[in-house]
């Protein structure tokens, strides 16, 4: 008996996504690009306005998500995952801004607006933008983001990654996957916030330092070595301080008794 195999048309986007995910593209070279400046290109938003990329920093970290609006699956998964993560954080607009960047220069204002509407972006703290072909190439080069265009399918293969940018426009962290862990996103944003040391962010800097980013797992982990070393150091400082205070107090009592 010969069994006839049938295929569901609904499975095509999944198969296409898997095919494209196996297409050759390079992941960002983090060792070379962390702390590099992101190219401040001219972008255009869903309202047809032109502005510079850095106009979206506004003194806060920026989470940059490269996508293209016609993407059949991966980009939607990334946007959906990001939405879930930032909703759990609840600090969009307060601690950071989001920018979904389409690397397809043929995207129109209507395409961008439709993508914003689909994912309920507010168009202020989280917006979708694109740029000219030259601008797109310059930005992707500055963040070492590789895309592979397939002529037959007319689709792009690309890494599933978001880039956290510091308030001064430097790359702080790459976060991989279609749904970044809220804790990883939170720590990456905090790490970007404290690029400049000040009294106001001393405790935030100390908190972030208690975690280290593991390149192998692409995630943050508790840095127990730092915590133990810091705790031991603070204990020694406290003990020495107590001894000095008691010694000074005892000397003053002796001087008072001799008068």
Structural account:
With 259 residues, this protein is an alpha+beta fold. The strands form 4 sheets. The chain has a 5-stranded mixed sheet. It has a two-stranded antiparallel sheet with strand order 1-2. A two-stranded antiparallel sheet has the order 6-7. The chain has a domain at 11-180: Glutaredoxin. A hairpin with a 5-residue loop joins strand 1 and strand 2. The protein has helices at residues 12-21, 30-33, 74-89, 109-118, 133-142, 182-193, 202-209, 224-258, and strands at 42-44, 50-52, 62-67, 97-102, 126-129, 148-150, 155-157, 161-165, 171-176, 211-214, 219-222. It is elongated and about 85 Å long.
Layout: helices, strands, pairs:
Layout: H1 12-21, H2 30-33, E1 42-44, E2 50-52, E3 62-67, H3 74-89, E4 97-102, H4 109-118, E5 126-129, H5 133-142, E6 148-150, E7 155-157, E8 161-165, E9 171-176, H6 182-193, H7 202-209, E10 211-214, E11 219-222, H8 224-258
Parallel strand pairs: 3-4, 4-5
Antiparallel strand pairs: 1-2, 3-8, 6-7, 8-9, 10-11
């Amino acid at each position: 008996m010969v069994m006839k195999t049938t295929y569901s048309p609904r499975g095509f986007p999944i198969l296409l996504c898997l095919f494209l995910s196996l297409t050759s593209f390079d992941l960002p070279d983090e060792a070379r690009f962390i702390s590099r400046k992101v190219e401040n290109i001219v972008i255009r938003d869903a309202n047809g306005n032109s502005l510079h990329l850095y106009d979206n920093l506004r003194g806060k970290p920026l989470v940059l998500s490269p996508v293209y609006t016609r993407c059949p699956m991966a980009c939607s998964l990334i946007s959906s995952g990001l939405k879930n993560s930032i909703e759990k954080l609840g600090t969009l607009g307060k601690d950071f801004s989001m920018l979904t960047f389409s690397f397809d220069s043929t995207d129109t204002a209507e395409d961008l607006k439709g993508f914003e509407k689909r994912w309920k972006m507010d168009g202020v703290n989280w917006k979708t933008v694109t740029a000219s072909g030259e601008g797109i190439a310059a930005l992707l080069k500055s963040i070492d983001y590789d895309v592979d265009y397939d002529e037959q399918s007319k689709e792009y293969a690309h890494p599933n990654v978001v880039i956290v940018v510091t308030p001064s426009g430097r790359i702080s962290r790459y976060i991989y996957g279609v749904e970044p862990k809220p804790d990883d996103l939170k720590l990456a944003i905090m790490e970007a916030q404290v690029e400049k040391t000040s009294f106001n962010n001393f405790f935030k800097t100390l908190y972030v330092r208690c975690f280290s980013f593991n390149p192998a797992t692409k995630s943050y982990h508790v840095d127990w070595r730092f915590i133990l070393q810091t705790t031991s150091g603070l204990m020694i400082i406290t003990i020495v301080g107590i001894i000095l205070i008691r010694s000074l107090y005892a000397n003053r009592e002796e001087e008072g008794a001799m008068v």
